[in-house]
Design a protein that fits this description.
Blueprint: E1 4-14, E2 17-25, E3 31-36, E4 40-45, H1 48-64, E5 67-71, E6 79-83, H2 92-102, E7 108-113, E8 135-139, E9 143-148, H3 150-165, E10 170-172, E11 183-188
Parallel strand pairs: 2-5, 4-11, 6-9
Antiparallel strand pairs: 1-2, 1-7, 3-4, 5-6, 8-9, 10-11
């Protein structure tokens, strides 16, 4: 039987749209997100359990179309919003409202299954071209955004699970992002030498 985790989930109403979001503090789940040098977005997980948690959260967002909001603790990191823009179209004004509303809504709870292994068989049918340009990544020192298609989420899930179960320390996603995207690098700090 697989393990589960209870996460905070809120419902947000904007004009005629209703969105659901998972709101997590980076400190609570041992990840840190930061933008560097104007062209890199680093998502650092402390170790393998945190990397599996990231994979599980991306899987949850892929199936439910929830927005995932990783709130920063201080000015050394940035907030991160992950969503599928084709299903949940969010503009800059919505982002500002979303960050404000999140602070004032009492979350409910939702239970998600936790991924605890990586399915190696997926690499037998791997075709890199189908994942090309499935992620759009934007960032500044305060806010980072990952706009992922369904295939983009699939890529994130498999890469995070792989980083948790292998001795690879990091994964670069720039070849799978749009040409104008900032480079996304996800690191398992314990295994990143």
């Amino acid at each position: 039987m697989s393990q589960t985790m209870t996460i905070p989930r809120i419902q947000i109403k904007f004009q005629s749209a209703v969105w659901t979001a998972v709101v997590l503090r980076q400190k609570d789940i041992n990840i840190k997100v930061k933008e560097e040098l104007g062209h890199l977005l680093l998502v650092d997980a402390k170790d393998c359990p945190e990397m599996f948690l990231l994979a599980s959260l991306f899987q949850h967002a892929m199936y439910t179309h929830d927005i995932i909001y990783f709130a920063r603790e201080d000015d050394s990191s940035c907030d991160l919003l992950v969503f599928n823009g084709a299903i949940t179209p969010i503009n800059q004004r919505d982002l500002k409202n979303l960050k404000t509303v999140i602070k004032h809504i009492q979350p409910g709870t939702y239970t998600i299954p936790l991924i605890d292994s990586h399915d190696e068989s997926m690499w037998k049918t791997w075709q890199h071209w189908k994942y090309d340009e499935q992620l759009r990544v934007m960032a500044n020192k305060d806010l980072a955004i990952i706009n992922a298609s369904q295939l983009g989420y699939e890529l994130l899930i498999h890469q995070c699970a792989y980083l948790a179960s292998s001795y690879s320390g990091h994964s670069h996603f720039d070849q799978h992002s749009t040409k104008k995207s900032i480079e996304l690098i996800i690191r398992n700090l314990k295994r990143n030498n």
